[in-house]
C-alpha cells in the first residue's frame, strides 16, 4: 500500500485512508526516537506499508527522496527503525560564462541552478559586491561535483574551485577539507576567502545614501555628516550581522529607530538602524555569528522609506563601509599547508585550462 503525502496531510489521516488503526500508528511512532521522525512528514514524500498474509504489520517506509528513506520493520514483534541512504557516484564537471547582465541571469544562461549560483556568489562575497562591482564582460569559471544516481545526474555537489575575472582583476578560490572534515575556501596560496566581515549586511535593491562627511538631511533639511551607508530594501528583508561578535545594544535609539549594535572584539563595532523588528533570539548580550539574521528592514525612527542604515567603526571612529579595508580571517593551518598544496594544484590547473578556453572563445566571437 502506498500514499503520497499531500498538503494538509497528517500521519493519522494517511493511516485512516489506508485502513490502518490508530493503535498501530501509536505503536509505530513511539517505538523509537528515530521512528518519531514520522511526525514530520512533508508534502511530496511517499509512505509505503507492507502487511503480512495475516494482515499484520510487517514494514513501513517513509521515502524522503530517491536516495533517502526511513524503514521500520517488525522483526518477530519488535519494531526496528533505520534510515537508509543510497550511495551516489561523483564526477567533476566544469562550467564557464560571461556577464552580460546580472550574475544570476548570466549564470542561469549557461545552465547553473539556483544553489550553484548562490554558492558561487557566497565564495566571492568578501571580494566582490555582486550588486555594485560586476560589469558586462566579466567572466567566471568553476569546477564542481555532480552526483549521479544509477548513472544519471541527480544533483550538484560542492564547488571544488572557482575563478572570477572582475574588471580585469582575477580572483581564484579552491575548496579544501582538512582531516577533521572542516571545509573552507582559500586563495591559491592558502589565505582564507572568508574575511572577518561581510561587505554588506542585507540583500539590497540599491544604495540610497552613501557615506559622506556632509549631506543635506532628507527630513531635517540641514547639512550634517552621514556616517554610514543606507541600503534600500523591502520591509521585512532579513538583516545579517557582518561579523562574529556580541550584541551590546538592542533597542530604540533616537533617529535610528529600532537598532542593534554589535561589538567585534576590542577594535571593531557595527550598527544596524531603522529595523522593523528584531530577531527574537538575538538579545543584548547575545553572541552572534557572521551571516546570522539579527533583524528585518523597516523605516522606524527618522526615515523617509524602508532601508537599513549601516555603520562600521574602527576604535570608535566611523569608516566608510563600502571602502574600509576588512581584516582577513585566519589562513590555512600550517600543519595542513603541504596537503593543501598537493590537493589544490590539479584543481587550479584544470581551472586555468577551462578559463583560458573561455577567454579564447570570447576573443574569437569578438566579445
UniProtKB/TrEMBL annotation:
Residues 225-321 form the M23ase beta-sheet core domain. Residues 92-212 form the Csd3-like second N-terminal domain. GO terms for cellular component: cell envelope. It comes from the Bacteria. Its main location: other. One of its GO terms (molecular function) is metalloendopeptidase activity. Residues 2-61 form the DD-carboxypeptidase/endopeptidase Mpg-like N-terminal domain. One of its GO terms (biological process) is proteolysis. Pfam families: Csd3_N2, NMB0315_dom_I, Peptidase_M23. Keywords: Hydrolase, Metal-binding, Metalloprotease, Protease, Zinc. This is Peptidase M23.
Amino acid at each position: 500500500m502506498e500514499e503520497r503525502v499531500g498538503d494538509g496531510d497528517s500521519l493519522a489521516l494517511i493511516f485512516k485512508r489506508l485502513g490502518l488503526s490508530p493503535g498501530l500508528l501509536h505503536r509505530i511512532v513511539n517505538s523509537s526516537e528515530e521512528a518519531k521522525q514520522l511526525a514530520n512528514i512533508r508534502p511530496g514524500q511517499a509512505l509505503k506499508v507492507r502487511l503480512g498474509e495475516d494482515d499484520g504489520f510487517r514494514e513501513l517506509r517513509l521515502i524522503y527522496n530517491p536516495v533517502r528513506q526511513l524503514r521500520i520493520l517488525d522483526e518477530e514483534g519488535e519494531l526496528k527503525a533505520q534510515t537508509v541512504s543510497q550511495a551516489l557516484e561523483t564526477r567533476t564537471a566544469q562550467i564557464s560564462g560571461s556577464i552580460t547582465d546580472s550574475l544570476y541571469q548570466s549564470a542561469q544562461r549557461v545552465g547553473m541552478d539556483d544553489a550553484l549560483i548562490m554558492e558561487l556568489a557566497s565564495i566571492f562575497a568578501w571580494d566582490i559586491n555582486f550588486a555594485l562591482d560586476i560589469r558586462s564582460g566579466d567572466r567566471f569559471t568553476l569546477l564542481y561535483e555532480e552526483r549521479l544516481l544509477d548513472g544519471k545526474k541527480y544533483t550538484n555537489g560542492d564547488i571544488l574551485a572557482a575563478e572570477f575575472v572582475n574588471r580585469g582583476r582575477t580572483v581564484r578560490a579552491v575548496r579544501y577539507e582538512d582531516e577533521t572534515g572542516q571545509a573552507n575556501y582559500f586563495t591559491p596560496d592558502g589565505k582564507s576567502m572568508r574575511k572577518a566581515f561581510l561587505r554588506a549586511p542585507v540583500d539590497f535593491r540599491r544604495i540610497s545614501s552613501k557615506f559622506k562627511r556632509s549631506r543635506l538631511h532628507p527630513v531635517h533639511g540641514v547639512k550634517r555628516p552621514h556616517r554610514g551607508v543606507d541600503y534600500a530594501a523591502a520591509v521585512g528583508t532579513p538583516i545579517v550581522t557582518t561579523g562574529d561578535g556580541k550584541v551590546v545594544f538592542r533597542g530604540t535609539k533616537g533617529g535610528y529607530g529600532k537598532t542593534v549594535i554589535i561589538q567585534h572584539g576590542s577594535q571593531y563595532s557595527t550598527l544596524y538602524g531603522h529595523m522593523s523588528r528584531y530577531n527574537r533570539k538575538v538579545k543584548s548580550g547575545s553572541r552572534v555569528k557572521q551571516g546570522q539574521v539579527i533583524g528585518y528592514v523597516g523605516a522606524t525612527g527618522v526615515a523617509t522609506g524602508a532601508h537599513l542604515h549601516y555603520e562600521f567603526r574602527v576604535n570608535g571612529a566611523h569608516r566608510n563601509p563600502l571602502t574600509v579595508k576588512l581584516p582577513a580571517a585566519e589562513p590555512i593551518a600550517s600543519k595542513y599547508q603541504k596537503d593543501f598544496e598537493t590537493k589544490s594544484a590539479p584543481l587550479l590547473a584544470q581551472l586555468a585550462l577551462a578559463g583560458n578556453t573561455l577567454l579564447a572563445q570570447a576573443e574569437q566571437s569578438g566579445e
